[in-house]
Write a structure and sequence with these properties.
The protein is α/β, with parallel strands linked by helices and about 270 residues long. The chain has ten helices and 13 strands.
């Protein structure tokens, strides 16, 4: 009896397996693309391009540009802080889909990154205190003045140090640990001019209206910012580029620039 019962159970199990093999498999939903976001990698400590504000929210000029572009594409974007020194590895590995955070377009980076067209220049200009030193209009007029910049091996510091005849014409050449300290001394009359990053300076001016004036003359080399993509992701690059072109044409990019810099600094040098 026990053998008979065992055989019946085995027979039922076999029939169940055969029945399962012959039936249609249940359809499983495609989860690969469902709810997929475009992941944007950034350094979240780079104001005003991208940074964490007092309410612990990631904000900035590039954040607003990317949010608007994603809206036009009908996509959701996730802002993911990364180790900026490892940005190319993050992009190549697929952990992020694009880099959008004041990223200079350089020949070396082009070897590993597919770039959008440039969307703004990155240059250094001269800042003076409002209503003072109105004779400062260009590099040559810095002669006899107390001039400052930020230390730390930046492009403009390298340019000034590489032009000893220019710096020798200054009454004094000072270096500050950061631009904030330099701009405060400029406001207080301790120095006559700051030669520095236009983006940071314009942002400071937007927060301290009527304190400084920008002399919009380029000092040193000009680089350009672009959005970075994986080399094989031409499709995403082209979609984002189309959105950027539309934003420039309809004035949206100008409005975002004026919000963060109190001026449109997105015009490109051709």
């Amino acid at each position: 009896m026990r053998k008979f019962f065992t055989m019946c159970m085995l027979l039922a199990a076999v029939m169940g397996i055969l029945t399962g093999c012959g039936s249609e498999p249940k359809a499983t939903p495609e989860k690969k693309d469902a709810g997929k976001k475009i992941v944007l990698g950034l350094d979240d400590n780079f104001p005003p391009m991208g940074f964490v504000d007092e309410s612990n929210k990631i904000v900035g000029f590039d954040i607003d540009l990317a949010t608007e572009a994603a809206k036009r594409l009908g996509e959701e974007v996730e802002f993911k802080p990364i180790d900026w020194a490892s940005k190319e590895a993050e992009l190549k590995s697929g952990r992020v889909d694009m880099l959008w955070n004041g990223l200079d377009i350089t020949p070396k980076r082009k070897e590993n990154i597919l770039f959008s067209d440039p969307y703004m220049n990155n240059r250094s200009i001269i800042f003076r205190a409002a209503g003072r030193n109105q004779d400062i209009k260009d590099e040559a007029s810095l002669a006899g003045k107390i001039v400052a910049t930020q230390s730390g091996g930046g492009t403009i510091e390298e340019y000034l140090e590489g032009n000893p005849e220019l710096t020798a014409s200054f009454k004094e050449f000072k270096k500050y640990q950061d631009y904030l300290a330099a701009f405060m001394d400029l406001e207080n009359g301790r120095i006559d001019a700051v030669v520095g990053d236009e983006i940071i300076g314009r942002y400071y001016m937007s927060k301290h209206p009527d304190k400084l004036e920008a002399v919009a003359v380029t000092v040193g080399p000009t680089t350009q910012f672009g959005v970075g993509f994986r080399k094989d992701d031409q499709a995403l690059r082209d979609k984002v580029q189309k959105a950027l072109d539309e934003m420039r044409a309809d004035g949206t990019m100008t409005k975002i620039s004026e919000k963060w810099f109190a001026a449109d600094i997105t015009k490109l040098n051709k």
